[in-house]
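Quarterly update from the structural biology core.
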Amino acid sequence: MIILDKEMAFLSNYVMDKEFFLPDLLRKALNHIHYQIQRRRVQPGLAVHITNEVFKAKHNINYTKGFQWKKYRARLAYIKNGKDKYKKWAIEKRWSVVNSQKKKLCECGCGEEVKKGNRFIHGHHRRCLSQIEKEDNAKRMRDAKNNRNENNVIQLKNRK
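Predicted structure, tokenized:
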């Protein structure tokens, strides 16, 4: 099982995107410079010189010291920019999770979740009405029911 740090995975992908069109041997040279500086505690200028000599001997490639130094500094800049972008990305991810967990609740106070765009669960709006409004609504519904039962139908005239 491979266990990766989220930041390292993000940085690896970010630097890979930036250095995609560099030759593999040049990327190996940059890794070798980094190894010399970080692990062997060699001065940066000397690390570039050692790397240049190694690649001349092994691969018969002469990347100039100035070119290697320029690409190494560019890689360090990519890493710094990638770390900054990771921090922004991580904050955005956390906010998206928090915002997706916020539930819109029914305004009647029952505590149940409502669909997007609704204020109440179907029928719960009545709980927020005053007693007078409830009585008026009930009277209107009784009158409408009585009219239906008495077959009071309004007929429209034909316009011919």
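The two ends are 83 Å apart (CA to CA).
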